[in-house]
């Protein structure tokens, strides 16, 4: 969810039209909490989509639920550390990133999502790394400011992993 | 220019209210609008305002009534079942002509329903959920920025016309984050004081009373006529709507709020496939822009009304369009949000293409 | 007085790994298992079941009613 | 030697004639509230919240700013006012249908929040306004228009002890039960009401007085007998007393 | 033939309910319908039924919900502010598909209003006072005899369609005495038992549940669609109205309930003066007899809608009549009952005679 | 020698998995209610009324006929059922937002009428379902999503003592406050619940048990610590005890 | 009010269409409680009328309030014992009956209204005396049955007074 | 101790003839008047006002606030 917000913020800094739309309610307990981010040069109309160009699956349930929603030719990012299944689609680009392993190596499991974010940015170029860093600094303030560095590191590692 | 920030719809409404000079919020938790009271519980103490979590929506609306009696800007927020519980109090406020802003983040209904986005409370909001002759101004934003702007407008209209104003949103608008620009903080001293009627202590003046009651039907009728006159004035001056690509449109989609914005994608999609579609999006659900829609509808191939309900605004669309054009309806219920694709499919089906 | 001999079974698919049973078992019979269940929790396991005295504490505290408690009796 | 006025209509009443039935003690309670407001010098900073019940017209009688709350919701309305304008004094005047039936949640929570408002609760064991139906406070065996065979605990429940319930709310700063069927009791009631206002003025919390009152019309007896009936039937069920007093005796 | 007796409207409804097999009444006092609970408090013990005075209208409607869950005939009665307080519960009942009969003896509003006769709750009753997508069957009697007949019908429709049915009356119908003939007592054993869904103890069968809720919007949508389908069935089968001297009429008065009967005098008066007037009186306010009114309206000189409100049924009249005929409205508000004379004057004014 | 089952899932629970968070004691309370229903042999004559709150799904968990009442109105719904079918046994299961906030009037009056129903009141000092807002029972100083700076008496009022209030209602036949943070307390709670059912079965009146329960998720601590937190923070504010017992000890 | 109900009942026994419509609410305390009775051979449409053919004023407030409502040529009955004012209309028939005095003479002040009823029946012949007596017997049952005789007597006296 | 001398006035147009003042006056100062007021009640009258001791009982019990009580004082 945070990943999505950072992405949206970064898009906003670039003057793009963005929306971030979470799923909410009891699904949160079900483990498939997710959000939809639309970053677009045009005015954003529908924040809900049945299809998406880029989908990120951080765990198995999410993979099962959302795999079918990737538009043909789109991207499916998979957290390889957790998801030990193979996706079934062949008409899409599949990017596997061992997010947890990389994050673990950085000494903070919580930045797994930032690793993934780096991978997404690298592959899709939807926003620039600078914007992402700006967004990160905007989002992590106060006590959390100390985490900025490790997050940046994670993003960079993610980018590398996806190259 | 003010900074753009990325915020959730519910929180954006809260911040906008504070900027509009609201320093009083009463509310009872209910999904999917909890972020708004939660935001207020944090923010109000920061700006010297008061947030009070009430014992129920019935108590809430009566606290709002009490605060409004003093001429103070006040607001509440709830979701569908809670809004139903407020109906008695809303009717009282309408009759006593009390200004306030009421937010309803509509969820799937009826009954307990679910907590997903819905537009099932259109009738309740526009046709009087409470008893008696009255109407409330009802505003329906379709973006987070519009939610901000309409919140400020809501307070101003409430004060101008001495009436409760409803902001009707849903889980999409409420939960979504979008970049917005907030207006400046209103100087509290410039807010209307309502010295001529508000209950502030009969200090050196005749006592004031605020009531929704007269035992004599002829007097009550006069009170009613006064309200009706006010409503006519609002109808004359406050109709708001958006027209999108209607200039050359052969097909008009009518939709409000969340569906209004989804419908824009449909318009684009349709035009890509050579179908000249446009969108008519009422922003004030009451007063409903009947005249403009009637005008627009003349000579159109199809009016497609799309809502997240069984066809509620549809009645107003029919009242406007009469026999001028064919009207069709596409709706989803129970908290299901239609996608642009499915609306477009429906449109094509109605057009037999 | 001879110690009562007990036994428990835990429905590991129902278990949410809350650890309440573990925290109340006087005989330290129970501990978390290594693996995950389908829900993604480390379920509780009766690791030292031979120590069980059938006191029922674990059963009583299990919020998900995963535990069945047995007691040894003279066979009929 | 000359005569000097010692007791006369208080300033805090308007000139309007009460709409109450002859001998209804609502009028007495109105007067002593007005006297208390006079004595405390707060008329110009006070808002009255009338209920729905026979005293719905109280908004016309008190010479203060005033409103009528929806049935039972006066404590919520008063809360809204007080939160909006903590510098004003707000009181509610409520009947036993209003406060003890439909308004149960609102009074319990206003008390529990320690809302700085004052409530005068008029317990006449009946719904006066609507024509004599059973109230939660109606006595067992009492005939009303909705208990034509007398109130039966088994079907209709028991007389509700409001003061005893409210005393369990931690925000209460003053709470008493009094009656107004003798001149002495009227004076005691007045003192209690004053304390209930002082609880507010001093910012101590919620103040309430439950006043046992008559309804000659719906009890079906004459006003003088009603005073006696109150004593003989209501007092045993509803014991008088001060339940909470954080105001103290300085005044 | 059964004996004719002279009874008040409210009491007539009470006795009719008992004859229809209703043995449970929950209610909270409010003028002008107190005679109905008072009658029930006397009568229910005589027939082995239960009368319970509740702590509020909110409690009332939820008790009705509870009783209806068991498949038992149950009713309540209130007046406008009380009906507003019931809206949440009504929405729950509509969604859970629970049968019950709800009487609203409408008084002047909005707010506390007054206690005189009014028709200001038409919108609330027909357009959904509560949240979400639903409709209730709404019956509007115009004589005491009709109140009796519609009460019995209300119970039967409620059971047939598993829905709350509203009887909407006002102080005139409620307080008026007229001679009526009561139907025979229904044999309680012949009443519908609702064995397939009612909560009666899971004795030798699967458990039953009655809910207005599903967390999954797609399931909730299915529940909604089921209800919509039922509503379409009701629309197809249950529209009721009265036509009075319409055969040769050039002018149609539309009016319901009390005004419907007053309008009959106007029709007479008009005809005496050579104006060919007739009356179209909807008996089911929902489902509203749109088609029939549309048919009738064609070629008419004037449709004069008369109501004791600011023009609520008027919207339905417009939806039916569209552009087929000129529509005018005459209304009184706040509890004022129009006299035949003033309506006739209004009619003449509109006709320029 | 052989092993015999001595404790297992009661009949009166369906096979559905609870939707509660790990370690939430709602589940324990469900189980003991089901055991009581089993032991009393009334499953086939019982209706469960679920509230709105985390336990809204209780209608799926109890293997009895069941409904969900509007938020706070379970006692009214149960009243309607019981009056319609006095031969059935009706119980409500309610949270502290449901019962102690919005449902205050309904519970007070059901108790006061001596309605022959049973209420299990789960006090976890928070609104679980909606994401951890303040409940009337939230402790002073406690941080919730609507008291981000901690509950302050002055603005937010005091923890509400429900059992103490309900004990003032004359129709109560059994009333106790218990907790479920140890196996012994779970057994005590079960006994109390049984008595609350017996009050109904014997036609003595209204029966209620207030159960102190945990909400690890919204308290923000792990399930085992939550048991301790309950003991250390809730018990001092909410003293345990039997407030009313007309059932006696024969069972 | 009772007078009106008896009249309505009597009308009903004669197979006529009748309605009885009371005023209600706080007016009851104001002293001008009144009811409108319509007895007609045709179906009764409006139970509320601004004009009436027959109006009965038992006290001064009622006279003041309702005098203007009598249709020209109609009847205004006045309880002479209480109303010491003269009506101002000249286009209507005015009948004065000293109801209280007559009732007093019968030893029961409460039957003043029955005296008036007698007068109304005599003058207007709206229903027959038999029907009125039937209605009376229907209305006064149980403990009140003993009052039937004095009521009948009062009606007869009223008829005489109005002759 | 010399008896206090008092006096009362009754606003007879406001009076509803309830008799509460009469019932509590210790000196039997008050009684119903003969005539009717505009509201149609027999209003209370201070018939034996010379007996009044200015105790205020009547004032305290009058629900319609019709009574003014005076007390004799040394003239200034
Ligand atoms: C929501 C609602 N329900 C019911 C009523 C009707 N009503 C008016 S006053 C009243 C009861 C008044 O009784 P009480 O509060 O005891 O006051 P009293 O007249 O005895 O002083 C009721 C039920 C109403 N106005 N609004
Ligand atoms: C009328 C209404 N208001 C508010 C809500 C939202 N709501 C659902 S559950 C809940 C509170 C639940 O808290 P509690 O009763 O303490 O139960 P818990 O989840 O803690 O067990 C609220 C406020 C609602 N469904 N209906
Ligand atoms: S029954 Fe007692 S001893 Fe055996 S595992 Fe459970 S808690 Fe431990
Ligand atoms: S108490 Fe139950 S759910 Fe929790 S860990 Fe033990 S077995 Fe699992
Ligand atoms: S009805 Fe009773 S309470 Fe109301 S004014 Fe008359 S006597 Fe007083
Ligand atoms: S939120 Fe709290 S009360 Fe609700 S299930 Fe989770 S732990 Fe239990
Ligand atoms: S003041 Fe006392 S003595 Fe004088 S009239 Fe009044 S009650 Fe009687
Ligand atoms: S108490 Fe007041 S109203 Fe009653 S009789 Fe005496 S003066 Fe008149
Ligand atoms: Mg009362
Ligand atoms: Mg809780």
TrEMBL record, chains D, F:
<keyword id="KW-0560">Oxidoreductase</keyword>
<dbReference type="GO" id="GO:0016625">
    <property type="term" value="F:oxidoreductase activity, acting on the aldehyde or oxo group of donors, iron-sulfur protein as acceptor"/>
</dbReference>
<dbReference type="GO" id="GO:0030976">
    <property type="term" value="F:thiamine pyrophosphate binding"/>
</dbReference>
<dbReference type="InterPro" id="IPR051457">
    <property type="entry name" value="2-oxoacid:Fd_oxidoreductase"/>
</dbReference>
<feature type="domain" description="Thiamine pyrophosphate enzyme TPP-binding">
    <location>
        <begin position="53"/>
        <end position="200"/>
    </location>
</feature>
<dbReference type="InterPro" id="IPR011766">
    <property type="entry name" value="TPP_enzyme_TPP-bd"/>
</dbReference>
<dbReference type="GO" id="GO:0045333">
    <property type="term" value="P:cellular respiration"/>
</dbReference>
<dbReference type="InterPro" id="IPR029061">
    <property type="entry name" value="THDP-binding"/>
</dbReference>
<dbReference type="Pfam" id="PF02775">
    <property type="entry name" value="TPP_enzyme_C"/>
</dbReference>
<protein>
    <submittedName>
        <fullName>2-oxoglutarate oxidoreductase</fullName>
    </submittedName>
</protein>
